[in-house]
């Protein structure tokens, strides 16, 4: 019989500090891996503790509990005859490390600390761990008593060694190390390593999976090896969703991949490898100059063979199928909400549903969640069955069997439309029809009395009666009257969340869902502590354009979404008159598409106001002159800085977008700015003036201009003379833009709302997907 190597990589839905649950899932995954014939089992990064423990990684308890879990695994016979590669924190010589612990038959072979920590974006590993600076130096780890008792060992190797088994060699790198330019797999494979393992905890972000895929494909194509990748799945206690998709590659080709979005807690993916394929592949690489072996890494000899004689055929390459961004929006937040709901032990969701795109998207995401739950229930997932029964009836062993996804939605989701005299029948009908399409429980309540009595209370004390602008009131009055309605909705939402289960004869409470999207959070186009102040927000990290794309794809399934899609986004907080209907884009003086452009420049490209402006001049030149772009950018930064304080209290949101303004974990900024930006705006004006004169004169053809970016090297804010840059701009654009320029907009520091009453909004469009890679 031929020698074959079966390798298993595991996706686990772990939960921070749930040491018992985490142990059970790791143990079960090892059992399944062995059952499938695997002789090497890889698990995700920090699977023993859960990845998102954050400052709990500063507690000695966390390390001690992890040693307890490791000792149980070491002692279990289920974990024998397979090399187990488990992720956990280890405290070595008074320093904390994010490690792999690799063991076989009750003995620890190696503790391998992470050498490059993840510290960008959502990641803060440097706050809790040190990177293994001695790399590739080895040390000895003195085992604590619980591990001495479990293994009979007193000291084990600690560092970045490679394992030499009887039949092959294995080296590990940990998550971020793959993303770096000096990834260990390069030196390891040049030293002859054939199997690279990577235990990861990598979060979902729209359009990101291809980054991981490309890195592994390139790594294995350039070096010739097997690459095993294990990722965490689910909401383990934080705003991010880890999106699984554990993979196995061989020589540039994908052999296996787990699901990216699923409710399954344990998923084991295996591949059968013929190691000779690596050797043959490398023979070809050598002839094209594969680097010679350098003995950089210490070797640990393991008297064990990961290959066995078996009749299994080697796994064949498969094609990766990427989800579209709309599918990702439908799946990722839905899975995250399910984890949140079952782990928070609440009884369902309460969603203030306005009939607009944002709250409708949230409703559809929960409907998707119900479909996933129904499918898993039908497929016999006992964990999902118990969770659903507990949430709906209070008893995990109840007899309840759902009829379909709509039945579940009716029990898990209550949608609440809160009408005032400024609401229209259209929005109420849209909310009602969508609720009926998805099957949620629908409630309408009129909140005028509450709003009126609040205003009356004010008037009694002050003898003044505030009025809307439409009735002759000032801007302050107009804003205050809007905010009273918006904030009253928040109070109603929490009241219904708390009392609806009681009214229905159940115990417990519902979680309030929020629906502010990433763009309005960035601009601050929301009332502080209105319905945007919820328990969790599934779409707070998703931009309006992507949400529109999502709603578009769901129209066939839920026909009521057609009118949701076609309606202009509106707050309905002001009286509708013949001359005026409130719309978001006119209110903000920027389209959602423009907010996305600015948001990406600000956050992803790390640009200040001047950088944003100079980058957008060529990009927007088909519609705006440099001065108009300057006005838009200044308008944005003024609103952003006035409203940044709102980001400090944003509802915790699913992280999906790299330009998220999320203030607590992701986009760390001050919340008290000088909103005049004198130095920056002065420079923008100077540059705009110099470009404007050039813009009027130049006859340069448009296509070449589109590629260029202003050269501002000659312009400084202190220079009295401003020279026109050499490489720009441009012939005047034929048509003038329809969007209002904020230069005409009056903007006072007590409001986010410019004084625009009759401006047309931009045409709606679905942008081509912008690929934003993040590592
Ligand atoms: N730097 C700072 N640090 C901390 N707090 C600061 C602050 N500056 C102002 N504040 C405070 O912030 C508050 C002002 O903010 P806020 O009350 O939100 O009110 P404000 O931002 O003035 O108005 C709300 C805006 O949201 C818009 N909007 C649009 C669509 C829908 C909805 C909706 O809610 O449904 C709302 C509405 O048209 C208006 O433009 C005041 O209490 C003020 O004292
Ligand atoms: N009439 C209403 N009934 C119930 N909830 C409402 C109503 N109006 C607003 N809300 C809630 O307040 C949130 C913020 O209101 P806003 O008018 O800013 O809507 P939005 O952000 O444009 O979202 P949407 O597209 O859902 O209208 C909404 O997402 C919704 O959850
Ligand atoms: N845990 C990590 O090392 C994360 C690394 C990487 N930046 C990612 O998003 O996948």
UniProtKB/TrEMBL annotation:
GO terms for biological process: NAD+ biosynthetic process. This is Glutamine-dependent NAD(+) synthetase. Residues 715-734, 746-762 have a biased composition (Polar residues). Residues 715-775 are annotated as: Disordered. Pfam families: CN_hydrolase, NAD_synthase. Its EC number is 6.3.5.1. Signal peptide: none annotated. In the C-terminal section; belongs to the NAD synthetase family. The keyword Cell cycle does not apply. One of its GO terms (cellular component) is cytoplasm. Gene3D superfamilies: Carbon-nitrogen hydrolase, HUPs. Keywords: ATP-binding, Ligase, NAD, Nucleotide-binding. It comes from the Eukaryota. NCBIfam families: nadE (TIGR00552). Pathway: Cofactor biosynthesis; NAD(+) biosynthesis; NAD(+) from deamido-NAD(+) (L-Gln route): step 1/1. Residues 5-275 form the CN hydrolase domain. GO terms for molecular function: ATP binding; glutaminase activity; NAD+ synthase (glutamine-hydrolyzing) activity. InterPro entries: C-N_Hydrolase, C-N_Hydrolase_sf, Gln-dep_NAD_synthase, NAD/GMP_synthase, NAD_synthase, Rossmann-like_a/b/a_fold. It catalyses: deamido-NAD(+) + L-glutamine + ATP + H2O = L-glutamate + AMP + diphosphate + NAD(+) + H(+).
């Amino acid at each position: 019989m031929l020698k074959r190597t079966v390798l298993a990589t595991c996706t686990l839905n772990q939960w921070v500090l749930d040491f018992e649950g985490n142990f059970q899932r790791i143990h079960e995954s090892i059992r399944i891996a062995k059952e499938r014939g695997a002789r090497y089992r890889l698990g995700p990064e920090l699977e023993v503790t859960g990845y998102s423990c954050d400052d709990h990684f500063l507690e000695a308890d966390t390390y001690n509990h992890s040693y307890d879990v490791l000792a149980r695994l070491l002692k279990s016979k289920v974990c024998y005859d397979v090399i187990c590669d488990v992720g956990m924190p280890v405290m070595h010589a008074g320093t904390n490390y994010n490690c792999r612990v690799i063991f076989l038959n009750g003995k620890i072979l190696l503790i391998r600390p992470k050498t490059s920590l993840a510290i960008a974006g959502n990641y803060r590993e440097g706050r809790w761990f040190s990177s293994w600076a001695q790399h590739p130096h080895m040390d000895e780890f003195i085992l604590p008593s619980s591990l001495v008792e479990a293994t009979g060992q007193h000291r084990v190797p600690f560092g970045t060694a490679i394992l030499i088994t009887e039949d092959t060699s294995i080296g590990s790198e940990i998550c971020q190390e793959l993303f770096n330019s000096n990834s260990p797999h390069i030196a390891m494979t040049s030293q002859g390593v054939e199997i690279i393992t990577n235990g990861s905890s990598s979060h979902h972000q729209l359009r990101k999976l291809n980054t991981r895929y490309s890195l592994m494909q390139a790594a294995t194509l350039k070096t010739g090896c097997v690459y095993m990748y294990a990722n965490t799945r689910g909401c383990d206690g934080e705003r991010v969703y880890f999106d699984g998709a554990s993979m196995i590659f061989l020589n540039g080709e994908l052999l296996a991949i787990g699901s990216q979005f699923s409710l399954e807690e344990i998923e084991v993916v295996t591949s059968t490898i013929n190691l000779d394929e690596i050797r043959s592949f490398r023979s070809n690489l050598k002839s094209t100059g594969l680097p010679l072996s350098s003995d950089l890494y210490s070797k640990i000899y393991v008297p064990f063979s990961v290959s066995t004689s078996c009749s299994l055929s080697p796994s064949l390459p498969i094609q990766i199928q990427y989800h579209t961004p709309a599918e990702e929006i439908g799946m990722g937040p839905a899975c995250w909400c399910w984890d949140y709901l079952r782990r928070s032990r609440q009884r369902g969701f309460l969603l203030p549903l306005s009939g607009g795109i944002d709250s409708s998207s949230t409703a559809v995401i929960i409907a998707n969640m119900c479909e996933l739950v129904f499918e898993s229930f039908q497929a016999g997932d006992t964990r999902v069955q118990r969770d659903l029964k507990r949430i709906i009836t209070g008893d995990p062993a109840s007899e309840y069997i759902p009829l379909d996804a709509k039945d579940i939605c009716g029990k898990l989701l209550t949608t609440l439309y809160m009408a005032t005299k400024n609401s229209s029948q259209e929005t109420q009908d849209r909310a009602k029809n969508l609720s009926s399409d998805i099957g949620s429980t629908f409630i309408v309540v009129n909140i005028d009395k509450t709003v009126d009595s609040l205003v009356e209370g004010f008037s009694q004390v002050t003898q003044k009666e505030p009025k809307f602008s439409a009735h002759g009131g000032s801007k302050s009055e107009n804003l205050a009257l809007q905010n009273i309605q918006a904030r009253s909705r928040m109070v109603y939402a929490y009241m219904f969340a708390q009392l609806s289960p009681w009214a229905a004869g159940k115990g417990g409470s519902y979680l309030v869902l929020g629906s502010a999207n990433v763009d309005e959070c960035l601009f601050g186009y929301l009332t502080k502590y209105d319905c945007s102040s919820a328990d969790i927000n599934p779409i707070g990290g998703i931009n309006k354009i992507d949400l529109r794309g999502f709603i578009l794809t769901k129209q066939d399934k839920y026909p009521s979404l057609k009118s949701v899609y076609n309606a202009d986004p509106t707050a309905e907080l002001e009286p509708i008159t013949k001359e005026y209907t409130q719309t978001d884009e006119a209110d903000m003086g920027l389209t959602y598409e423009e907010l996305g452009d600015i948001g990406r420049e600000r956050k992803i490209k790390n640009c200040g106001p001047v950088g944003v402006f100079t980058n957008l001049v060529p990009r927007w030149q088909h519609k705006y002159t440099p001065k108009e772009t300057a006005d838009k950018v200044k308008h944005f930064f003024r609103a952003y800085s006035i409203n940044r304080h709102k980001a400090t209290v944003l509802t915790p949101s699913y992280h999906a977008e790299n330009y998220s303004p999320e203030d607590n974990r992701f986009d760390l900024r001050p919340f008290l700015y000088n909103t005049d930006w004198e130095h920056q705006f002065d420079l923008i004006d100077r540059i705009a003036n110099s470009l404007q004169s050039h813009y009027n004169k130049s006859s340069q053809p448009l296509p070449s201009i589109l590629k260029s970016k202003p050269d501002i090297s000659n312009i400084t804010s202190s220079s009295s003379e401003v020279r026109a840059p050499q490489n720009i701009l441009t012939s005047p654009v034929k048509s003038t833009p329809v969007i209002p320029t904020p230069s005409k907009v009056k903007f006072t520091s007590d409001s986010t709302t410019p004084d625009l009453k009759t401006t047309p909004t931009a045409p709606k469009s679905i942008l081509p997907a912008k690929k934003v890679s993040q590592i």
